[in-house]
Design brief:
Distance between the termini: 64 Å
Helix content: over 70%
Shape: flat
Number of strands: 0
Oligomer: single chain
Structural class: mainly alpha
Length: 342
Amino acid sequence: MKRKIEKSYKRICRAACNLISQKTRIEKIYPLFVFAGIRSDPEIYLGKRIILGFLAAMIGFLSVIALQPVRALLPIAFLLPAAVVAGIASFLLVAFASYMFVYYLIDSRKKMVEGILPDFLLLVSSNVSAGMTPFAAFRNSARKEFGPLSEEIKIAASKSLGTESFSEALKELSKTIASDSLREIVSFFAQSLRSGGKIAKLLETTAKDLRQTQALKKELLSSTRMYVMFVVFVVVIAAPVLLSVSVQFLDMISAIQQESMTSSIEGMEMGFLSTKLSIDSSFLVLVAYALLSGNAVLSSLFIGVISQGMAKNGLRYFPLLLVVSLIVFFASRIAFSGFIPA
């Protein structure tokens, strides 16, 4: 029974996967799975995410239709269009989250490989200097501590035992790990194998150059750390505190106006307090939520650009920035309500 359910589920996943054209899947989506190190069936993996997106869309649609607080805010004429928009937004949110998950897997594999690449090249150079052939040196240097690089080199070595040459098999590494440094090194190494030369010295020099480049990147990152800390302080501390002060000040003004309206004193001029405010604190709280969310998104993109050179690399910090800023906002409101009573 369990096997029948699994087969039926896989059949549904494949059917959902077919909603995307085969050309798009083969040329744009499946290569991302390979770069991310996802070894499972790509059709089933993609189909699961599509099904999850449809479920999220149904939840978003029904939440607008069924939830009484949401229905109270919207006129009846706008209820169905709002539900459709909520469903589409929920589907797109799941699709975006799935893409970012794969992207971060690709980025983590890339950083891991580039971090240990100099040590790997030095080990290969030592093995070649000890008298090993380049093929044996690469295969024996593929240790477990080298992570995904070791796994891909073992796969390339097994391919080279067949009809494919070792240099051509090594070029497959550029199709499984999205690293420009690795791609250039593999291409350069394959060319040196064909032309001949001192391979050990070449690998040693390349490893030293990579270490110098990584050291320069670390220095650049440390020089921009103060900018990142300033942005985090503004988003996490300054903005929530100022917004909480604004909400508390509006509550205080509203309370004073309420007292002045119920007062029986005649001839008393209240100035601007005699005019009723057009907004209340609940609206300002909603504005604060929107501002904090927008600040968290923009600041995470800014941090990604400063620290890693790619805006979307910083999106991983968005949930943390948003949660911390909301906590500071609520804590500030509680604290200021004791010092500045409404």
